[in-house]
Amino acid sequence: MLDFDTLKEIGVIKTTEKKQICLMEDPCGKKFIKYIFEEDKREIYKTLQKINHPNVPAIHNVMFNGKTIVIADFIDGRPLSEHLNGNEKFSEKQIKNISCQILDALDALHKQNIIHRDIKPDNIIMDNSGNVWLSDYDISRIYRTAIKKDTEIMGTFGYAPIEQYGMLPTDFKTDIYAFGVTLKALLDTSGIKGKLLKIADKCRRLDPMQRYESVSDVKKAFSSKKMCIGICGVAFVLSLIIIIILAVSNSGATSSKKSDLTDNQSEKSYSDDTSGDLIRFTNTMVSEGFVDYSEYENVNTAAIFSGKGRWHLLSLMSDTSVKATVLMGKNHSTPVEAEMHLYDGVFTLNLNDEFGHSFNHDFYYDNNHPFEVIYPQNRRINSELTCRDLDGDGVEELLVGIGDCSFNVKDKTLYPYFNYCLGWIVRYDEARGFILCEGDMFSQNSKFVFVDGDVRIHLAKNAVNTETTYGYELKGNKITPYK
Questions:
Q1: Global pTM value
Q2: Domain 4-73 adopts which CATH fold?
Q3: Strand bridging mode 124-126 / 267-270
Q4: Distance (Å, rounded) from C-alpha 106 to C-alpha 215?
Q5: What's the angle, vertex CA 332, arms to CA 331 and CA 336, rounded to 5?
Q6: What count of other Cβ atoms lies within 10 Å of the Cβ of residue 374?
Q7: What is the rounded CA–CA span in Å between residue 473 and residue 292?
Q8: Do 101 and 135 contact (CB within 8 A), yes or no?
Q9: If 0-12 CB within 10 Å is exposed, 13-18 middle and 19+ buried, where does residue 269 land?
Q10: Which numeric CATH code is attached to 78-223?
């Protein structure tokens, strides 16, 4: 506790009806903030005083003499709102760093049963080194389960969820909502989408039951897509971007298809004139930065969908943008224009047909299926599209897959070891357009396997063995497990 009598007031920073904020200084020149509240704020600030956290300003003194007097650390920085109002751009790495510090601060508050209730850029202070502090606890309260609804309507419009307008009691998910709005403001200003935007959207859902359960769950969402990239002897594998491959008849292996550049423009086009009737993906255009690794004699084991038989796969194996024509519908005769992007573990797919139907969806691992990381070295998220008739009606469905793989290279051969594979199914016909089927498919440590004459999708026992034990089948518009 500070010796309050040694502090000298330098000046008044702000005065309102409810409080006054003053800048103080001790004999050594160290600065502090003094808050004088007209109301009794002892409960919240004495609880804050127990917190020792780098992202929460330290509370040194809490006194009451008819007014509440609080002495806190002075933070030398600017509100995040000033950075945003100045249209300052942040990189994705910077946004993650800022977000994780805010979440760490919220985690410390919530462990003391404190709900901040006013998370917004104005109340987030950042210094020139990127360190972040969460400030302004004027409307914070202690969480109590017996409260049915808040008696006072408090918060900042745009950052406060519905429960802060007296409809429901505020709880820790109130702060999660406001964090999501703040994160979205950072992303919008910087022009960044992908996985971080999905996190922000889930935080901002109106129904509190549909948000993340806790700050810990939000933190897990941030860390779930961080790749543990190794650097030993396989640097060239890590720059692998896309390979168009055609499955051949053996135990799940596929052979790479050689592609030739047709021009030197900003996008590169590849010919897809292989095996006639089996072709499903044509006119493939890959963004600048494409590296062709078709010199590998066996890139096939990287396939998420494997097994015996022949089919066409479009596999993306690093961050890039791709355009292609997908042949779908009856007799796979309808050209569907596709744009896709794999970035930070999120596979974004946009589809448009000539009849005006469209489809836009982000596919990613959302923690619904717990798994153990067995292969942590050289991890990459890859994604894949293929077409297959899954219900025997003669019309192929579009299968979308993402896989968490550890890649190893030996003798010009890629060997992936799967931590997990996730799959989804998109139905299509010319009359109804695109339908994302309910549910998903999950496989830990193995790929999905096709078997000739069987419309079901099987799971292999491991990444190199196509002996199946169980899997999934399509019933109507619902993906159903089978054993």
A1: 0.48
A2: Phosphorylase Kinase; domain 1 (3.30.200)
A3: unpaired
A4: 7
A5: 145
A6: 12
A7: 35
A8: no
A9: middle
A10: 1.10.510.10
Output the six-digit token pair for 103: 């979440």
Q: CB-based burial of residue 260 (10 Å sphere; 0-12 exposed, 13-18 middle, 19+ buried)?
A: exposed
Contact indicator for 149, 161 with CB cutoff of 8 Å: no
Under a CB-based contact definition with an 8 Å cutoff, are residues 376 and 261 in contact? no
Q: Taking Cα atoms as reference points, which of 312, 327, 362, 357 lies closest to residue 341?
A: 362
pLDDT tens digit string along 365-421? 877 788 888 888 777 788 889 998 998 888 999 999 998 888 776 665 667 788 888
Sign for the CA dihedral angle at 388, 389, 395, 401 comes to negative
Report which DSSP code applies to 298: B
Taking CB atoms within 8 Å and a gap of at least 24, the contacts of 202-208 are 203/176, 203/177, 203/179, 204/177, 204/180, 205/177, 206/161, 206/162, 208/161, 208/163, 208/168, 208/171, 208/173, 208/174, 208/177
Cα Rg, the chain, nearest whole Å: 28
Q: Report the C-alpha gap between 220 and 214 in whole angstroms.
A: 10
Cβ atoms < 10 Å from Cβ of 215: 23
First to last CA, the chain: 65
Q: Which helix (H) or strand (E) holds 295?
A: none
As a dihedral over the C-alpha atoms of residue 402, residue 408, residue 413, residue 414, rounded to 10 degrees, the angle is 10
- Print burial letters for 132-169: b (CB count within 10 Å at least 16), e (below 16): bbbbbbbbbbebeeeeeebeeebbbeebbbebbeeebb
Domain boundaries, the chain: 4-73, 78-223, 235-482
Q: Mean pLDDT across the stretch 33-38?
A: 95
